[in-house]
Each structure stands twice: as C-alpha cells, then as structure tokens.
Give the backbone structure.
Amino acid sequence: MNKAEILIIDDEPQIRKMLEITLQTNGYLSKSAVSAKEGLIMAANHPPELILLDLGLPDENGHLVLQKLRQWYTNPVIILSVQKNEEDIIKALDNGANDYLSKPFRTGELLARIRSALRDSISEEGDTTLNFQDLQIDLSARAVKKNNQLIKLTSTEYNLLSILIKNEGKVLTHQYLLRAIWGPGFINQSQYLRVFIAQVRKKIETDPNRPEYLLTESGVGYRFISKA
Amino acid sequence: MKDFFLKRHSRNKQYLFSIAIIVLVSSICFGLSGLVGYRVVALILLFTVSLLAITFDILPVLLAAALSAFIWNFFFIPPRFTIHVYTTEDTILLIMYFVIAMINAVLTYKIRQVEKISRLKEERANSVKLYNTILNSLSHELRTPIAAIIGATDNLQANNHLTKENREQLIEEISKASLRLNQQVENLLNISRLESGHIKPKNDWCDIIELVYDVVKRVEENNPGRKIHISINQDLPLCSLDKGMLDQVIYNLLNNAAIHTESSSRIDISVTCPVDILNIIIEDTGKGFTDIKIKDVFDKFSRSKNLKASTSGLGLSIVKGFTEAMSGNVELEKTNSHGSRFIISVPVKTSFIKVADI
C-alpha cells in the first residue's frame, strides 16, 4: 500500500519538526513548507493526499490561502490554529476545511483526525448498511438499530443523524446543520438543533449524558465518530 | 446637602455655586437682620466661605470671599446699602474679614494639595506592591514547569544510566509540566481579557446538561482518581448565555476542588433553573478556606498558605470576573462539614421547546 503524502504548511520550525516526526513514524510521507507562497507552489507541483495548514502564516492570511487552495485542490485540508477562536474555526470550515485542531493538541488527536479525513466519504450507493459497534444504520430503508433493536426516529431526527453519519469524523457547523435540515431561514435558531441533538442522543447513546457517537465541538458544531 | 458638598464640580459650576450659596446665606441673614447684629453676620459668612473651601477650587473660593466681603459691607455694615464705612472699627473689621477669608481659602487649598500628593504616593506604592506580587507569583508558576521540562530533557539527553522506568518517569514529568504551563497561559489570557475591559458575553442557546457533563469529564481526566457527583434535573430548559465563560467558571471551581482537597473528600455539582435564573452549586467536603477571609478569596493572587498544590491565585478571580461579565453573582460559604460551597447565579433567557413544536 502506498503511503499517503501529507503537506505541512507552518512557519514554526518546532511545530514542523514535531509534525514531521509524528507523521513519518506513523506511516505517512511528509513534506513541509515554511510559508503560504511555498506551500501553494508545493501543493500545485505535486498535490498531496492531505494538507495541514497553519492559519497564522507570516506572509499571507491562512483563510486566503485556504480559499486559493480550494479553487482547485479537492483533497482534505486540516486547519491548525493557535487560538480557540470559534469564529475563525467556523470561517475555515465554511471555506472548505475538513477539520481543525487548536494548538496545543495531542498527537493522538491529530492522527485520529488525519485518519478520518483520509477515509473515503461514505457514498449513498453501494452497501447502504453501516455498522458502528452496537449501532446499525440502513440508509436505503432509513432504519436505525441499536443492539439489534429498531429505534423509532422522527424524520427530522433521522435526517440529522444520517447527515452526521455520512460525514463521519468530520465536524459539521451549527449553521451548516440548520441550513441542511431546516433550511436557510433557520440558521439562527440554534435552540432547535440542541433540542434534536439531545433527542437523538437519548435514542442512540448508551448514556446520553456521556455521548460516545455524537460529540459536541463546543461553539462550533457536532461530529459523529465511530467508537474505536 | 452633604452629597452636594462632596461632589466634584466643574470649574464653571463651582463659580455659580459659590455665588449662589453666598447670596443665599446673605439673604437669610438679611431676613434675620432684626435678630442678629451685623458682626455676627460676618462670622456666618466667614463660616460659609470656609465650608466652600473644603471642596471647591481656590479661585471660586476667592470669588466667594470677595463677594461676601462686598455683600457684608453693602447690605449689613451701617450705613446700609452704601459701600461707605463710618467707624474705624468697622473698617478694620472689613479688612480683617477679607484677609481672613483669603487666608482661609489659600490654606485649605494647600492642605488639600498635600493630601492629594500623599494619596497618589500611597496608590503608587500599592501598585508597586501588587506588581511585585504578580511578578513573584507568575515567575514561580511559569518557571517551575519550565524547570521541570529543562531538567527532564537534560537528563534524557545526557544521562546514559537511566533505566527504562526512569525514562518513562521523566517523560511523564515533561508531559505534566507542559499541561500545567498550558493551564497557566490559559489563565493569564483570560485575566488579560478581563483586565482589558472589553469582554462581552456572546450569548447562544446552550444545553447546560451537556456542558456540565463535558466539563466534569475534563476535570476527571485531568485529576485521575477523582469522581465528581452531578445532580441535574433532565428537564432543565435551554439557556441563552456565553458557553465559553460558563465552561471556564465551572471548570475552575471543580478543578480547584479536585486539586486542593484530599482524594477522600466528595465533590458535588448541582444545577437548577427556576424562572430565568441559572443556579449552580459546587461544594466539597474539604477543609475549606481557613486562612483567608471569604471576601478576599476572589481577589487576584490571593491564595491560601496551606494549599496542597501550588497555584497562581488567578482561578477564582477569573470565576468572579466571568460570572460578573454575565451579569451574574458568585458567593462562597462554609458548609456544615467545614468544606466550601460556591453558589453561582446567572440571569438567563430560557427556552422550553418541545420536539412537537418544530
């Protein structure tokens, strides 16, 4: 199997070094760029399977770099940012970033995000039954089973769960979910989303207060993860 | 009346008030002129000028002194309604009046100047003291983990006699020290956000149950072996508030309780939301705050001397700052078992949407 190649665009030598070692010792090939300019050239010359992009580059705003990349680059981009600035993160996700990590982060977390970003997105064709330990979802029959017991979900609950499952591992912003499920008129009605997330958790989680599938990304959105 | 004298007025207002008060007092005396002699009036006016000198600036007081001397001469010294003075005695009195009023004004002004300078000096001394406390506390809190990291890495690099176990311990130390550094930086950033004054809560609908369980999970992860007991009614409404701030408030209080109490003591968090007030109670069965006064607990850099672990003394002032930024209130009381109970109440908008509504 070919090793996936990952391009690191970060101006901090210490972070680059750490990322390179982490990636190389975990079965990836890595290349590094120290500036936005260099990064864009390297990505264009030889498109990598995934890009780790630091938002705080000295020569160009990271959001602009992301926009330029997204004009032609379709593989996953994971954003690294120094601050837990929710607005920044949401903006990056809206601009086409697949995921984000705020520094400092644990390497285990980084590797998990890379793995899930590199996994092919689940298509609606082909095998339509997805298995996650004690949870099964049949996309063609719109049926969800927990411990082999059929769970009754309302149509909104099912839509919410299925959109999160189809984007497994990826964080979906509040606005994205509200627009996708209720329509553009509802993007400021975040209370609906919270009520439905709580409802879905009550049905699919073993302990709804300690969710294992449907995780909250505080201030940003939600993500569905398959239990390891 | 007292407030009126104590308030600082602008220069123009001070002139107006000086004139108004002198005219008012003179009119009263004029009305009473059948009862009191004109020499008593001089004393009353002199007294009024002295009162003005206590709060007003020097120029308005000098104006009041000159005006009152003129009024006394014109309306009270016989012959009245002239500026003539008949007797030598009255001439001396008038001159004396004017001089005493002026001296009065100047002296009071000087005393106030001296007082102001000494107050400034004291303030400066206090801020130097606070600055030193900050420096000491910070340099200790930041240097300790840095020292641990440097020491451990030096050992790992240069010492060939380390056993595998030694290595693991050193790596564990580096990891702990860096988490502690990160926590301190987080605290410092929060404090500087609070100090800068432009901290405004960003309200959004929040599932409090989810938030509390999430914070508890993090505190339990960072303090292995500690268990936090949660009591929340599952019917709690959604609340509109700044999630990040509330998260930090609860985290700091729970983490403090986990760090500074014996592992045998119990930590509880309970949440209720009766009519648009969110109440959060965090209590432990530890030893409580024994050597600092309850009202000083939330002050920056105040910390108990007999703590189990060292801290920066910033955590609780962040709790207070964030709670107040959300227009809320935080109180500390002693529990029956000598532990501590923190009571937070924050006014919130609530929403009881039911699924059927949508």
Q: What stands out?
A: The helical segments of chain A are 13-24, 36-45, 62-70, 86-94, 107-118, 155-166, 174-182, 190-204. Chain A touches chain B through 19 residues (CB under 8 Å). Chain A has a mean pLDDT of 88.
